[in-house]
UniProtKB/TrEMBL annotation:
This is FAD-dependent monooxygenase. It comes from the Bacteria. The keyword Chloroplast does not apply. Keywords: Monooxygenase, Oxidoreductase. It comes from Micromonospora coerulea. GO terms for molecular function: monooxygenase activity. PANTHER family: MONOOXYGENASE, OXIDOREDUCTASE-RELATED.
Amino acid sequence: MSGMTTVLISGASVAGPALAWWLRRHGFRPTVVERAPALRPGGYKVDIRGAALTVVDRMGLREQVERHDTGMRSAHFVDARGARLATMDAALFGGREGDDVEIMRGDLARILADATRDVEYVFDDSIAALTPSADAVEVSFERGPRRTFDLVIGADGLHSNVRRLAFGPESAHLRSLGHHIAIFTVPAEFGAEGIELMHPAPGRSVGVYRTAGAPDARALFLFPSPPGAAERRDVAGRKALLAEAFAGAGWLVPALLDAMWDAPDFYFDAMSQVRMDRWSTGRIGLVGDAAYGPSPASGQGTSLSLVGAYVLASSLAAAPGDPAAGFADYERRMRPFVEVNQSLAERNLKGMVLGSAAQIRFQTTMLRLMPRLPGRERMIRRVTEPIRRAATAITLPEIPAPRGA
């Protein structure tokens, strides 16, 4: 390759703009294409911790990220009548400690997009076909004209279009955890500011939270994957499946389901992980959830995206003109980090969705007694230590000098 290396990045959520930022710093010329007509606002709470915080620091964005902290204070567990069963500090509930930051996904995406204003963004379009050659990739778009790039990177999430085009059907790479998740916006009156309400029931769990200063609240549902869920791709059908799964549930569930029908941002998907033998083929690579999505149960998807973007850009920059070597270095550095973070998901899911009323009683009793139990700090460390260990299980490469420096 001669001159400035051109890179097409598919996806403008977290991994895509973060990768664009680092590639730009290393002297590449990235372009980001996004299927949506604009940045997707809102979303759900995400955590940034460990090595990902170091990446945010190196981008000079820590202060902005911290300004958008969710401001959550506590989590209350309630029964079917709304009676409080137990209370936890919000940081402990989310497995956070020290400098860890919780932020809404939409806020983080906007911060990253604002930091990459010198990057070309193409909204309301998507990749239709990829035609790789020895020294470039020709890209056909659904709307725009055909273009050629030196590299193409899929940062387009769990259901990655680039992964499907370059690596084959999605079914070969997704591993279901046996549960579904649904998240959507509900009116503010459902949630008190800074409070997370959780209603555990055997085999399923419902939560509502309202972040600091938010004009609305978010509802979250976790439940075993219903039969036929994979075939229901229309929003109305998925809402009907959720209503069926929680028919007869108590607490605020009937009112939340009523509000669901008017929610403009309904998210419904299987809790799945992406497992792949390789994250690149020729001049096409993957980053973030597209390559190694750990599922929301891990709590580490955003951190993996930020760290993966940093490592991929560093590895490509360290091997100018040799993308195969750059991709290989990226995988060598990232794969152990990915594996330890993906391993959190099943462990966490067992605590998020309990199988019986007896397990729920035991969990809420222990939470209620924890402040008075001897060895409380040791018990808390047992909760946070696996997450902390996973979040720091990588040595980040040093930042190479920018090209031309």
